[in-house]
Amino acid sequence: MDGLLKMRLLALSLTISLGVTLATAQQKPALIPDTRGREFIFAFPSNYDIPDALFVHIGGLSDGNTKVEVTVPALDFERVINITNTNVSRVDIPVEAVCTGNGFQNTTVLIRSSKDVNVQAMNTKDKSIDGFLVIPADVLGTEYIVPSYTTVGTEKSQFTITAKSDLTTVTITSEQELAYGTTLYTAGQDIMFGLQGGQTIQFQSKIDLSGTGITSDKPIAVLSGSTCAVVPQKTSRCDHIVEMIPPVNTWGKRFSLQPLMNRESGYIFRLYAARNNTVVKVSGATVRLERQGQFVELNQLAEFPLGINADKPILLVQYAKGIQTDGVGDPFMTIIPPIEQYLNGIVTFATFDQSGLTNISSYAAISVTSPSLFTASLNDVTVLAEEPDVTVNGGMFSFGADRTVALSAGSHVVANFMPHGLFSVIIYGFGQGVAYGLPTGYNLRKLTCSSKDPQTGAVKEFDCPIEEESQIGPRAGAQGSMCPPRMPQCGGNPIPCMPGQPCWPGQTPWMPGLANRPSQIWIPMPKRPSRDPLPEGQAGGQIPANLAPPPLIPLYPGQKKLPRPLLPLHQQTCFPPTAIISAVVGSFTSMFVLMLLVIFTILCSQYWISPSKKRKR
Fold it and tell me: CA–CA separation, 363 vs 384, rounded Å?
């Protein structure tokens, strides 16, 4: 019987160990979404003329090789490159991939990689350039508000929409009259249409389209700006401006805005309201935005950072002024990430150094708000080498620091691996009559959540609970081994093959027939109730917080249960054995293991008992 007791205790111990393993796996915190990713889908909006060049800078984020595939399916264009460690590689894209005019476009760009990467895109024409940070496909959203600016002459304010999935319904509510084909839509009128996966549409207007609302039933990518904008208004020289817009539910309330280096004329910035009746404090001054999509434009001349606070989410956009204001640069437009979306880990990027024969001087505006102010580094050199002046503007934050540094030509790395070491970096550059600017990376947490009253159907919005950082550096998997694209045997989800190319066994084509798909006739869809939102945890949804595991089962009667400090007080009670067993065998794998253990225990007990029975005979 001693042998049988030992085997039973062993089986019970293995069961408990399995339960602990499963509980630990279930307790793994959710990843924080950000602008570093492995799949990107977007399109280049129009410049004032056919660009001289379109290209992307793709930066590695981990040791070893990262394999990257850049394609424009409608043009049968494909490039495959290998990025070593944290280097940045440039991939030129055919200029035919730029959008032109109003309507459907065959210009969608797709980027896939074996590990997480940073992607910055540039649309260049002599004396008219700008770039944007590309947002990964897995963190695209379903609600956007367009920032743009005043145009000049025949130039256009514009935005592009690219669908991630087939049968995507899009609704546009313009703040201005918006013409398409032979139809003129008045301000506030809804325009509804459908997009297939990988399809892009562009809207243009001579009137500033800032504040236009865009919603969809599936995630979409939205870029906006102008073919050539004049900043400030009523000036003569213009420049191409563009940005990829973050979803509204990721907008924040707290900002640190830095001045532009070597610009004596200062800069322009706009505050865009996500919701009605928004109150904003700009270094103590109060600004009120009464309706969703409304914006206010402010001219900042002083050469010191601004602290901005709002009671509801807003989008902050900074605009560089034209060369006629101080003899330097030209307009650009850049998103300023909120402090709530500063990120941890590493970002890689490269400067843009020349437009035609014009040389460009580049800068990095680095903002740090962290208990570890001196751990952020640029190319392995500490950004803040001495005690900074503490920035406290309107109670924005209790500590922080901002610094702008000149950049040498080429690739750069900004890193902060300390826990809670958060930062933001805006890169920009000026030449004679030319400029560019864009963020290098930020988190895309879902900051605004909502609930619907089952009785009245009223929707109430509230601040989403913020979870702790789940890891240091890029998202999980970025350090994993490289898996060549389109190879299903590498594990995980294989990358689909492109149109017209052979597929590996088990591989499915991506966007079948897109290259041969004719331009669709634009017909607004009739109004109908919107579809249900995507389930939580799917693309566009928010991964729910993981629950704490149940306490361990006692090893024998009378033994005290192990302490579980993660559990709420009302859950810190003994669980009955049946509840513990049900929790442990919640998966098929654990059930199978338990069955083997039981069979093994019975066989062993019969083996040890049978000799004693034979002796009694």
Answer: 16
- How many Å apart are CA 532 and CA 541, to the nearest integer? 12
In the chain the first and final C-alpha atoms are separated, in Å, by 19
Average of pLDDT values for 413-437? 91
In angstroms, the CA 261 to CA 611 distance is 90
125 sits in which H/E element: strand 109-125
For 556-571, the pLDDT digits (tens) are: 344 333 333 333 333 3
Sign of CA dihedral 609, 610, 611, 615: positive
Q: Which residues pair with 335 in a beta bridge?
A: 317
Burial string for 138-152 (b: 16+ CB within 10 Å, else e) reads bbbbbbbbbbbbbbb
Residue-wise pLDDT for 250-271, tens only, equals 999 999 999 999 899 999 999 9
CA 597 to chain centroid, in Å, comes to 46
pTM (two decimals) = 0.73
Tokens standing for 121? Answer: 């895109």
Q: Is 556 within 8 Å of 13 (Cβ atoms)? A: no
Which residue, among 378, 404, 441, has the nearest Cα to 267 in the 3D structure?
Answer: 404
Alpha-helical segments (H) within 463-616: 577-584, 588-616
In terms of C-beta distances under 8 Å and separation of at least 24 residues, what long-range contacts does 376-384 make, across chains too?
376/414, 376/415, 376/416, 376/421, 376/423, 377/414, 377/415, 377/416, 378/405, 378/412, 378/413, 378/414, 379/412, 379/413, 380/413, 383/414
